[in-house]
Amino acid sequence: MTEIEKQRDETGFFKACIVAGKRIREFDDAVIVHHFDADGIPAGSIVFSAMYRNGIAPAMQCWKKTTPEYLQKLKETTFKQIVFCDLGAGYTSKLAEALPDREIIILDHHEPETPVNQRPADSNITIVNPHDFGIDGGNEACGGGTSYLCFREFPELSQLALVSTVGDMQDRAGLIGVNKLILKDSVDAGITTVKKDLRIFGRSSRSLIGFLSYASDPFLPGLTGNDKNCAQFLAENEIPYKQNDKYVSYYELQEDDRKRLSSALIEHCLANGMAEKAVDKMIGDVYLFNNEQPGTPFFDSHEFSVVMNACGRNNEAQTGVGACLKNPDSRKKAMEIMQAHRQNLRSGMTLAKHKLSDAGEFYLLDLRGQVKDSIIGTVAGATLANLVQSTKPIIALSLDEDDHEMLKISARGTNELIEKGLDLNQMLRIACKDLGKSTGGGHKVAAGASVEKRSLNEFLLKCAGIIHKQLSGEEVKLD
């Protein structure tokens, strides 16, 4: 039974969060295990902050994925309690087998491995997951949001929950469901201000020329990567990018200048062939944090989430946690990491233009040996949003840096394709079945997998068949 078919029970979900939060704050020998992305790092930081308020400073571990190697290392520790944030729900049987003597609480929004009514009553694992209550974890509640709801008595933590929400791209069509409730908490507490504005990275932390030149989501035709063209574009549209010999940021412009820039940029992108759907997404709600310093990336939820993503994707998750906890040294280092990360993404997008092919049922982006596995998902999403008409999903390939026998797979879709039946979580779970040690899963709109190199062709054929069935309205069973 899917989350749509289940009876929606927000009250039950909130009660489960409260119970879990109360128990977590009683833990005295715990480790927090969180995912390595822009949702997982704030999610883990929320739990750490809540426990720290009780005088407990738990250990923290960051995982890219649940693997036997990670499980073995965790098994060798002596922690009595484990809190998983933004991962774990899809691997409960492995966790129960590897860690039967630990008390485990999983705060996750990915689809659970087994339905509630099939879980053992005497399990050492407690799962708090929106899917169990008829709430879609793909667009209504993220990992950070689930963590926040466990400690809702601390409204200041709603800031990190919103960073998670934006980092998990659940704000693309506006916040709904549980996410909307968390935003209300944050606005009511004076933490967050909502504005309608351009949704391009660098509004607060970059000069206007850098704001345009370094844009990669979306990729601005004729502007991204070309400082000279950006300066000319601003001058032609009478946008003052310098004041008193000082370069200014987007937020330092007068409101009329910001509106004129937004209109000119939309016209420019449409005139230069950008997909209309990508242009439409350039304007939307942005969430600004009233307790942060304007001019820094931590003032803007989108920029904050990019910093988190950069830290996680560059093996600096602990720096990201420190930035969430407002450590000045961590924040300085995190911004340096972010700058290098954005440059890598720009290079990845340039490669994508030449490596993209149409594989029939999906677009194939083969970047093996050219783009790191830690950013392949971001490049795949940006490619689907900017370089093609999104009438089909995209599957991107990179080498698995942790296992030379494996490939890292990232699959991305759109909400429109989901409405037509696409389910990338289901697709990857089925396609990986019986392919050695291949595993996969995630959300309907975005999912990932590790696939044996020798099984790639069979895997892609299975994906094509599953996508065809899903978008044709045929039943696809996950055995």
Detailed description of the structure:
About 40% of the residues lie in helices and about 15% in strands. The protein has 18 helices and 15 strands. The longest helix is centred in the last third of the chain and has 28 residues, at about 330-355. It is globular, with a radius of gyration of 22 Å. The model has no long low-confidence stretch (mean pLDDT about 90).
Give me some keywords for this one.
six-stranded mixed beta sheet, five-stranded parallel beta sheet, 18 helices, globular, single chain, Diaminopimelate Epimerase, Chain A, domain 1, 479 residues, 3 domains, inorganic pyrophosphatase (n-terminal core), alpha/beta
Q: Please tally the β strands and state the result.
A: 15
Portion in strands: 15-25%
The radius of gyration computed from the alpha-carbon positions, rounded to a whole number of angstroms, is 22 Å
Biggest sheet strand order reads 10-11-12-13-15-14
Q: Helix count?
A: 18
Q: Give the overall shape, derived from the CA principal axes.
A: globular
